[in-house]
Specification:
Number of strands: 9
Radius of gyration: 43 Å
Strand content: 25-35%
Length: 228
């Protein structure tokens, strides 16, 4: 009985000492030398390496975003220039196609102005009216249309760098073939659009060359616009 009691007392003493030691160890300052390997923090070299890697990834990402934004802006600007130039060319070609005579430029000549007489009446123009397409005298980045009856001037396109009109030669049997070149660009930018087209007026007489078979592509003065 005494032996059992002594064993119990000894076990309680060991248990109490172990609990006190564990409790004391819990609240004691941690010694870095006694820490376990899995509880260690980052070293300065590891932090520097992570910062360098993150900086490289951020620089690549930023460059990708900047390049994508620049390409998108360039594409939008070029589309704006293209749409404006295309609309202007379509309107010019529509009017020249109805010309009954062309005074400027002369056959074989070229310049930045075209003057002709309209052949048929339209909603905006009258028959036999003189039409001029030219660059604005005070601002050569504006392409304008000048009407004679009634006298009026309207802008056709902006941001113009080149407007060129070339007329064919009688010797090559394309005297009335009109080649139009229109270049547009944004000021202080690399976006540029170059457009070119050819127009064959429908109301002009047949061009003639030596020989029995003239080859000019027109309607031999047999075309007429009908209004509904």
């Amino acid at each position: 009985m005494n032996r059992t009691y002594n064993n119990l007392k000894e076990w309680q003493k060991v248990t109490r000492q172990g609990f006190i030691k564990s409790f004391r160890k819990l609240f004691e300052p941690m010694n870095p030398r006694t820490l376990e390997p899995f509880s260690k923090g980052f070293t300065l070299i590891e932090i520097v390496i992570v910062i360098v890697i993150l900086s490289i990834i951020s620089a690549i990402t930023i460059k990708f975003l900047v390049d994508s934004l620049r390409i998108y802006t360039m594409t939008v600007n070029q589309k704006i220039l293209f749409d404006e130039g295309k609309l202007a060319l379509e309107r010019i070609c529509r009017d020249i196609r109805d010309a009954k005579s062309i005074t400027t430029p002369a056959a074989g000549g070229s310049g930045s102005t075209i003057i002709f007489l309209r052949g048929n009446l339209t909603a905006q123009d009258v028959a036999d009216e003189s039409i001029t397409f030219q660059l604005n005298p005070t601002d050569n980045t504006i392409l304008e249309k000048v009407k004679s009856s009634p006298s009026a001037t309207s802008a056709m396109a902006f941001k113009i760098t080149t407007f060129s009109v070339t007329r064919g030669q009688a010797a090559t049997n394309n005297e009335n073939e009109i080649t139009i070149q229109l270049n547009l660009a944004l000021t202080g930018s690399l976006e540029r659009v170059n457009l070119q087209t050819r127009v064959y007026p429908k109301n002009l007489l047949q061009d003639t060359v030596p020989g029995p078979n003239p080859t000019y592509k027109n309607f031999f003065y047999c075309w007429e616009e009908l209004r509904s």
